[in-house]
Amino acid sequence: MGLLKNTALAKGVIHLWFIIFSLFCMIPLWYVVSISLSKESDIATKGYRLIPKTITTFAYNYLLQNPKQLITGYSVSITVTVVGTALSLLLTAMLAYVMSRKDFFGSNALSFIIFFTLLFNGGLVPWYILIKKYLHIDNTLLALILPYVIIPWHVLLMKGFLSEIPLALIESAKMDGAKEWRIFYQIVLPIATPALATVGLFIAFIYWNDWWLAMLYIDNEKLIPIQYMLYRIMNNIQYLSNNIKPGNITVDISKFPNETARMAIAVLAAGPILIVFPFIQKYFVKGLTVGAVKG
């Protein structure tokens, strides 16, 4: 009986610790939302506060002055993220599966090539020339998708997951008459669902948060993703805030939020990912532990 009480007490202490730890992890996010709903003058005088002195949506109203443009940016980012993640995940899984097959004679050589590109790459100039001069895909969504289709780190990570699949399982499927494509799609991929969710989330983060490719290759306003759009808005606000003098009679500096706009941009940019993450959290957590314990 005493052992059960001690066990229950220990579990209670552990649960309480993780609850407190989780609350502390929520504080930065709470600060971001709170500041985005604060007045710029309150931040200048009172600093950052967990609870706004005056709640206002001025920063959001300023950013949402052109909702059509924002919707276009979201649609571009969602399209690039969904298509890019699906394509990248498929090609990454296919390449990692080949590398993980111990009966494939070129597995070591292919692994070395992938690892080498993880350490050394051609750099920005070759990519720019390839996309602009040879492929001619600038000002298209392909320019936002293609550079991140194969990322060496994701391939090596997926290989570690797929290496845990017993070779005997694949051999038995071959004995039953299954071809390589059927083995991959009907046996390997379902088993690797947690790994696919984990790597897929990493890939989705890269596509969703990217603004660099749009700055390099996109001039068409209808193809600007949300991250680059918000980045340009923030740069414009900061430029005006730094260069307009208070005595300027033509422009009211109070109409250009600075700190509040930064946090509102963070909320608008991260919102969709925060909504999607809980639905794949269980696969993500399970995927992180795949291969951690061998039995």
The CATH architecture comes to Orthogonal Bundle
Distance linking N and C termini: 33 Å
Number of strands: 0
Overall outline: flat
Domain unit count: 1
The gyration radius over C-alpha positions equals 25 Å
InterPro entries: MetI-like (IPR000515), MetI-like_sf (IPR035906)
Protein name: Aldouronate transport system permease protein
Membrane topology: Multi-pass membrane protein
Subcellular location: Cell membrane
TL;DR of this structure?
This protein is mainly α. The protein has 14 helices and no strands.
Tags for this model:
295 residues, mainly alpha, MetI-like fold, 14 helices, disordered C terminus
Helices and strands in order, then pairings?
Layout lengths: L1 H35 L3 H7 L11 H6 L3 H34 L6 H13 L4 H11 L7 H4 L6 H11 L4 H9 L4 H12 L1 H17 L2 H6 L8 H18 L15 H31 L6
Helix pairs in contact: 1-14, 4-8, 4-11, 5-8, 8-11, 11-14, 13-14
